[in-house]
Design a protein that fits this description.
It is built from eight helices and two strands; from the N terminus they run βαααβααααα. It has one domain. The two termini are 21 Å apart. By secondary structure, the protein is mainly α. Helix 1 crosses helix 2 and helix 3 crosses helix 5. The protein is globular.
């Protein structure tokens, strides 16, 4: 379970609503997965400014849980490993970030802008193979591990 801004969860739910209104049986995990796979910048240098904007705009509200909501989704293992790899790449730049912040930033700052784009990404995500999920900075072997990702907060040092 992750504590994410209410606005980020609302954006995920809005994406689910759009997809369901067109006949797709979509869930939060699907919208989050397509954001991680297709809308996350490929490098930490490009990802950090998005995270920083999210942190600056939501940190005060999240600090006292006023606008924070719990988000619990089951993601395919390669998508979860990709989140870990993206977080690790930003940590390598010297920033302390967690999965929940990446999830919130992608939901608020990287949501597709049109209905058609969202539908196209959803269809592409549903047909994706592990090779498609790897991305530029995430080695394929890291996603193919049989080890299940740990539940809860990941340690800062690996």
């Amino acid at each position: 379970m992750q504590w994410v801004s209410k606005a980020a969860i609302d954006q995920l739910d809005a994406g689910v609503g759009v997809l369901r209104s067109t006949g797709y049986r979509a869930f939060r995990r699907d919208v989050l997965g397509l954001l991680v796979v297709y809308r996350a910048p490929p490098s930490a240098g490009q990802l950090w400014p998005i995270l920083e904007r999210y942190l600056l705009s939501t940190a005060p509200a999240l600090s006292n849980n006023r606008n924070a909501r719990s988000l619990m989704v089951t993601l395919p293992s390669p998508v979860s490993h990709r989140i870990d790899a993206l977080v690790d790449s930003v940590r390598d730049l010297g920033h302390v970030v967690y999965r929940r912040e990446l999830v919130g930033a992608l939901a608020l700052k990287r949501q597709p802008t049109t209905r058609d784009e969202l539908i196209d990404l959803y269809v592409k995500y549903r047909e994706a193979r592990v090779e498609d999920i790897a991305g530029v900075d995430v080695p394929l072997q890291r996603l193919l591990t049989t080890a299940r990702p740990e539940q809860g907060r990941r340690p800062l040092a690996r």
